[in-house]
Write a structure and sequence with these properties.
Elements lengths: L20 H9 L6 H24 L3 H11 L1 H16 L8 H11 L1 H4 L13 H16 L6 H19 L4 H10 L1 H6 L9 H7 L41 E3 L5 E3 L5 E2 L5 E2 L3 H8 L8
Antiparallel strand pairs: 1-2, 2-3, 3-4
Helix pairs in contact: 1-5, 2-3, 8-9
Length: 290
């Protein structure tokens, strides 16, 4: 199963080649604005075929049962569509050199390969799942041009693998990655129990004591003394220790960032505030420049 490119056909061995019907449909979709009536007829006919495939999946039809169903339900639809397309071109109702004529030519040239599902049991109609998988790898390859190091690229590959594997198993990637970070110790102790397809069971068994506070980054607050200032001269009142920022007074000598509402301690580290404080920040009066 592949699209219509010749380079997709292997030369080392014989294969039963099938072309993706979704690719043929896509050529017609591109011409909807120019030929709305003609495209509507083709798309409705192909939509009926894909609806029949959905029925086979819902009923669990496989092998000869699926083949017989498509021959009975989809065969007449495809035969009528082929006759109609040829009549459109033969009667000159569609210019062969137009965009729609190219789309019709693509379908007719590969008709036997596009309709293999009417002759071979379990032959697929389309190749969308493989196309989506390849698209993720190509996208990651393009994004890897901007990594600063090989290790950074490896971390990005691991994250991409986890995110897309979670999507394939119908899990929310954000919730999955959040669960891994919240249960860091449990994941390190038993990684096999925290894979995208079984992490919900481990999450249900997790002890509340192992759950860290969500969305609360670890504080890295510490004294930051510039190199040009002697240790015995460094104190909170030193001119270099004063922050030039727009802020409002917060608890324990902290300040609140005007734009994001996060707390900034007197040493400049950001800390996530509680939701109640974020709510209060939305009703604060305009801040003054410090």
């Amino acid at each position: 199963m592949c699209d219509g490119l010749d380079r997709n056909r292997p030369s080392e061995h014989d294969v039963v080649e099938s072309n993706c019907l979704a690719h043929g449909r896509r050529h017609v979709v591109d011409e909807v604005d120019n030929f709305p009536d003609e495209c509507r007829y083709v798309l409705e006919a192909l939509g009926q075929v894909f609806k029949n495939e959905s029925t086979c999946i819902a009923q669990g039809l496989r092998g000869q049962e699926r083949l017989a169903f498509h021959q009975r339900e989809s065969g007449p639809v495809m035969a009528t569509l082929q006759t109609w397309i040829r009549a459109e071109l033969d009667d000159k109702r569609v210019e062969p050199n137009s965009g729609l004529g190219d789309a019709y030519g693509y379908l007719l040239k590969r008709w036997d390969k596009l309709t293999l599902f009417l002759r071979v049991p379990d032959a697929p109609l389309e190749n969308n799942i493989c196309e989506r998988t390849l698209k993720m790898a190509i996208r990651q390859r393009n994004n890897s041009l901007f990594y600063r190091s090989q290790r950074g690229a490896r971390v990005g590959d691991v994250c991409m693998t986890l995110i897309y594997t979670a999507e394939l198993h119908r899990q929310n990637p954000f919730h999955y990655m959040t669960a891994l970070l919240e249960h860091e110790a449990a994941v390190a102790a038993d990684p096999a129990a925290w894979l995208p397809w079984n992490y919900l069971h481990a999450l249900a068994r997790a002890s509340p004591a192992t759950i860290s506070h969500p969305m609360q980054p670890r504080s890295r607050c510490r004294e930051r003394r510039p190199r040009h200032v002697a240790a015995d001269e460094w104190h909170d009142g030193h001119p270099d220790a004063k922050h030039r920022q727009r802020r409002t007074a917060g608890p324990s000598g902290s300040s609140r960032c005007r734009r994001w509402g996060r707390l900034r301690c007197r040493h400049g580290d950001l800390h996530q505030p509680p939701l109640s404080m974020l709510h209060d920040a939305a009703h604060d009066p305009p801040h003054q420049t410090a």
